[in-house]
Amino acid sequence: MRRLRPLLLLPLLALMSGCEAVVLSPAGDIAAQQRDLLVWSVVLMLIIIIPVMALTVFFAWKYRESNKEARYEPDWDHSTHLELVIWAAPLLIIICLGAITWSGTHLLDPYRSLDRINKGQPVAAGVEPLQVNVVAMDWKWLFIYPEYGIATVNELAAPVDRPIRFHITSTGVMNSFYIPALAGQIYAMPGMETKMNAVINRPGKYVGFSANYSGDGFSDMRFAFHGLDQAGFDQWVAGVRADSKSLDRETYLELEKPSEKVPVLHYASVDEGLFDAVLNMCVEPGKMCMGEMMAIDRKGGLGLTAVHATWPLAYDKYARRGEAVLGSGESYVMAICTPLEAEKAAVDAGRRRQELAAQITRSAPTEQIMGRGLTRPGQASRTEVAAAGWPFAPRIPAPTVADAPSASQS
């Protein structure tokens, strides 16, 4: 019966044969370097672990009770040579691990642009990385290709041996973007942008998923990653563009709603600036963007005006994104102006300031006149600058009769 016991392990071995050790056999250079870092760390630690385990068995056998020939030294308490081995070996291993970890932390920084495609193959001059904007949703992945003006859901593709630059964010719950064959995982957080640079070196179909639990549909939050040659990638892009769907803001707000087991979706066009709106949490029409709000807060805020500048939320997943300062209604801060209006206003204000400065310079007197209420020649007063439209400049009223100096003062 005992001879048959090893046969009981055969079903377990059969199950393990279906496992794919993709972490130890990656298809991307970054993942391969991370694999090497893992292997070297394990090898260095085994230098201590294996001798300790072997000596444990050796001492238990040598000093067993039945071995009457073993040396018996009850008063032994110190050995300089043994102390040197005990302390020097772990210290050297810790130094080596620290050096490998330090260099790996900097060389494999996900924010660091790639300087090589593969071992011994640097990035060719003039090669631009493929930019992919990643949005983690409940419970699906949205990929936007700004270079090609397309977007996909739960499907990602990239050409072989071309650097990829990911810009990653989330709509609500924090997730973790992870393609084991490509590179390590990096978190996706709402209102924040993380980045990752990677490259795929072998064609194939790989699996990506979220490595951070994010709710009911987390188990199905998986997507396919295709490593293609350039011709295959161009064909894939053409297939996406052949779809008739367009990803505008209204479509995005519907897509953002929680859903599980979402099939692959293709969008032939994407609204310009959609990813920036997702990142700044202002996809809804009329909602103030985080960047705009932070710029206003940096200038001192809007005061009590901000209390009333709110608008009700029509939808907010399972809970409100924010509550009004007064009342319990769902609300958010309204935008003061659109980004295009703000950009145009800044350009117009700069042009008016330049024209005003040039006009004052041309009409400036040759002699320097100093006195109360007068500015230096060639410089505009605060009142003139405010009238010209300096952003956030205080509106200084024109001087009145009461402000004028009296005869006794002059």
UniProtKB/TrEMBL annotation:
Keywords: Cell membrane, Electron transport, Lipoprotein, Membrane, Oxidoreductase, Palmitate, Respiratory chain, Signal, Transmembrane, Transmembrane helix, Transport. Residues 127-239 form the Cytochrome oxidase subunit II copper A binding domain. GO terms for biological process: ATP synthesis coupled electron transport. It is found in: Cell membrane. It holds the Pfam family COX2. One of its GO terms (cellular component) is plasma membrane. Residues 15-112 form the Cytochrome oxidase subunit II transmembrane region profile domain. Residues 1-21 form the signal peptide. GO terms for molecular function: copper ion binding; cytochrome bo3 ubiquinol oxidase activity; cytochrome-c oxidase activity; oxidoreductase activity, acting on diphenols and related substances as donors, oxygen as acceptor. It comes from the Bacteria. It is a multi-pass membrane protein. The chain crosses the membrane at residues 37-61, 82-102. Belongs to the cytochrome c oxidase subunit 2 family. This is Ubiquinol oxidase polypeptide II.
